[in-house]
Amino acid sequence: MDRPIFRMQAVTKVYDTGGTKVHALAGVDLDLFGGELAVLLGPSGSGKSTLLNILGGLDHATSGHVWFRDLDLSVLKESALTRYRRDHVGFVFQFYNLVPSLSARENVQLVTDVARHPMPPDEALALVGLDHRLDHFPAELSGGEQQRVAIARAIAKRPEVLLCDEPTGALDSKTGVQVLEAIRDINERFGTTTIVITHNAAIRKMAHRVVRFHDGRITGVEVNQTRLAPRDISW
Ligand SMILES: Nc1ncnc2c1ncn2[C@@H]1O[C@H](COP(=O)(O)OP(=O)(O)OP(=O)(O)O)[C@@H](O)[C@H]1O
């Protein structure tokens, strides 16, 4: 771990839904460090996805500042934010968002065709243990395999940051563990700063640090003195 790659200062997010204001983030200060694997843990509606979307440049904070290194994301225009996302961030979501008519390799190729310094799609798929599934279509893959294709797609552009929103939310424990193993392997192999959102408390054990959320606020940050390998975690 080294200096902060992200700094959040007094970040708020207010959604205004026809007169009712929802304070999704109610003043968040958080540093995230280069190379760390952080788990954001909290109940449904506590603001985890909102925070991840702001870090990933998918959304703007209502107030406060968010820096990625020296870049203040909170003041970037849409086109600069799109460049930031394209060049630096890989996303993995709960539902894999693969294109059904494309093979695993072609799904990854969608990203490598437009990235600046991508790895070959076959290499990205090998990293997540899918070198034997290159020509399979999503419907021919299990949920866990589809999620690993989504991880391969996210890392094929060699992002500095990997943001995962409930990556095991749709998976059973055994398959979820394989997905977490792939995520941990990427973090260790490439030093990719990795943030994993979950409401599953068991997953916190694989993190360097655990950030707890409640009602749009951080209620605690813990450092894990001993981390567990995902294969030693079950739920
Ligand atoms: N686009 C939106 N419009 C209005 N309210 C929203 C919007 N997105 C999120 N919210 C609200 O903001 C709050 C925080 O939501 P968020 O999705 O960040 O929580 P979460 O901790 O990620 O929850 P979950 O684990 O269920 O995904 C919730 O009350 C949610 O209903």
TrEMBL record:
What protein family is recorded?
A: Belongs to the ABC transporter superfamily. Macrolide exporter (TC 3.A.1.122) family.
Query: Which keywords fit this entry according to its UniProt record?
Result: ATP-binding, Cell inner membrane, Cell membrane, Membrane, Nucleotide-binding, Transport
Gene3D superfamilies for this protein: P-loop containing nucleotide triphosphate hydrolases (3.40.50.300)
Q: Which GO terms describe its cellular component?
A: membrane protein complex
The UniProt entry, under InterPro entries, shows: AAA+_ATPase, ABC_transporter-like_ATP-bd, ABC_transporter-like_CS, MacB-like_ATP-bd, P-loop_NTPase
Name of the protein described by the UniProt record: Putative ABC transport system ATP-binding protein
> ABC transporter domain: which residues?
6-233
The record lists the organism as: Rhodovulum bhavnagarense
Instruction: Tell me a Gene Ontology molecular-function term this record carries.
Output: ATP binding
Q: List the SUPFAM superfamilies hit by this protein, alphabetically.
A: P-loop containing nucleoside triphosphate hydrolases
Q: Which CDD domains match?
A: ABC_MJ0796_LolCDE_FtsE (cd03255)
